[in-house]
Amino acid sequence: MAATTILQAMGVTTALLPATVLSTQTECLGTPAALTTTRWQQQAARHWSQLPLSFQGALVGYLGSVPAVQTAQQVLRDLAPARLVVDPAMADQGQLYPGLSTGYPETIRELCQAADVITPNWTELCLLTGQPVVEPTAPACLKMARLLRGRGISAQLVVTGVRQGKQVGCWLVQTDQLLFSGADYFPGHFYGTGDCFAALLYGYLTAGADLRTAVAGAERALAVAVRETSLLSDADRQLGMRLTDLVSYLVREK
Fold this sequence. Notes:
Blueprint: H1 2-9, E1 20-22, E2 34-36, H2 38-49, E3 58-60, H3 66-79, E4 84-86, E5 91-92, E6 95-96, H4 104-112, E7 117-118, H5 122-129, H6 138-150, E8 156-164, E9 167-174, E10 177-184, H7 193-206, H8 211-229, H9 234-237, H10 244-253
Parallel strand pairs: 3-4, 4-7, 7-8
Antiparallel strand pairs: 1-2, 5-6, 8-9, 9-10
């Protein structure tokens, strides 16, 4: 829902293909009721393929099961989008999201092999490379970037949720250097920042920005939503990011 709102505000015409419909987000609110849509996705993709449509790109976020990832791979092969951005949403704070199997990272790794850009947080990067989850450091990040290439993932790598001094942001890995983009750190946990960042990044790329400019723009825009959400109680934050100020910001940018 956050990604759809953001992309609409950025003027990106969006075709939705929900892989799993959940009653709530996956953390702190018990076990959500889940509806899988595998057969419907396949039928929707077949319908789209019969229409005079071309897909400028695709953004993939949380999928929720190994079969859902496999269905997404099939659909992406059929639709052949010109650009693929994958947010390998599966873990945070050192562990997999509830309900995901231990084999899930391997399937996501296969999906990432087809991507042009991937946006894992630090925990997800460690899982993608099969490394222990340790504190993020520049040498460890560069090592894991090399490990990804060894596993057939040539996508440009943007690592999200990185603390650097009094800021939080992301590392864009370019060759053997890290380019940091960040904003002021607000204490506490914010549910859905990864979804918002990936959508913002995709929107700026679709508008024609190069990756470095898109990353910096996405971080600036995300900070608007984080600032607004920081005013909420911990319980209200569990219901997701507040996007009112962000939508206004994006509309003014256009």
